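Run log, item B.
One chain of 406 residues. Sequence copied directly from the ordering sheet:
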Amino acid sequence: MILQVCRRTLSLSSLGSRLSSFSWSFKLRGSGPLPARRTLAWSLGVVAVVALSACGKKEAPAVALRPVVAMAAVADTHTVQSSLPATIEARYSTPLSFRVGGKIIERRVRLGDSVKAGEIVAKLDPADNAKSAASTAAQLSAAQHQLTYAEQQLTRDRAQAQENLIARAQLEQTENVYAAALAQRNQAQAQAALSADQLKYTTLVADRGGVITAEQADTGQNVSAGQAVYNLAWSGDIDVVADVPETTLGSLAVGQKASVKLAALGGKQFAARVREVSPAADPQSRTYRVRMTLEAPTPEVRLGMTADVAFAQVPASEASGASREAFTLPSTALFHAGKLPAVWIVKADGSLELRRVDVSRYGERTVTVSNGITPGDRVVWQGVHTVSAGEKVRVVAPLHPEDFAS
């Protein structure tokens, strides 16, 4: 089109040149009045200049908008679930240790063994404690003999004092000897009992039935009193332990039901109930520890297994009658405003807005957003790290929609 206009302009220019030459020749020849001839010449010149200037102008190129993949947000039809990794642990787990120090000469159980209450699990060398027990037993025997003699002497002196055969001071002295003998006997008796207990403590006994989950000392090793030799996980209640972020903490409550899936058992699911929610966050991970009691566990459930726990959220807004919709987005749509999760929203005029959101669940390839998005918002799925706030973009459909399937 532009070429045709230019060609026509050039033809008009050449025509104007010819008319100008004609006007000058007409002027020289003296044909017609002079003012009319000048007006005609100037008109033809102006037409030629305007046509040439129009041909020299170029149209400004259109601004290329950055393409982004964006789709309208659609609320999930299923209940919002929060899924977190967890581990299987015993509700009670205690270390087994000797109450006296010594050298381990025997261990009767190993890692993973099941033990019963009262079962002997390890022994210390009892030689020193046996000698101490024998010594205190001998001291007790001597103290008992001294007490018997003092008692007999006291009985004779009391009888003689009634007959006024001995002085009152002598009776008091005999009574004093008897009291001292009695105290020594009692002390020797307590010492003998203590030595006997220490000899008994050289044998380590499981006070509860359970499973040995750790070995912390070996045969031939010298251990001090209270040093852990084994770790015993009590049989009975089994806990599911998970660390939840603070964004999920508000939707949890003691007594809330949960579903636990064990990958080691082919994805078999078990019911659980929240038993305890930590009141303070871990100083490093900034997460809160939640303990759930596994209901009706089967023998195939082993301690230390990894699990995936999911529980229906109960937002605080629901208590006041408000509802909160959830949206499942591909993981590529998640951006971060500082340390907080956010997404890019394409507004009606094509410009971008960075909006803060709350993530309730992280999946393998998706994230579930529970706050910050309304139905119909066009959320950028791809290209979130190449755009900026306020930038105008061109929305395109995903090339391979199956890549974004949840």
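Observations after the first pass:
- The chain has five helices and 23 strands.
- The first strand starts at residue 66 and ends at 72.
Flagged for discussion on Thursday.
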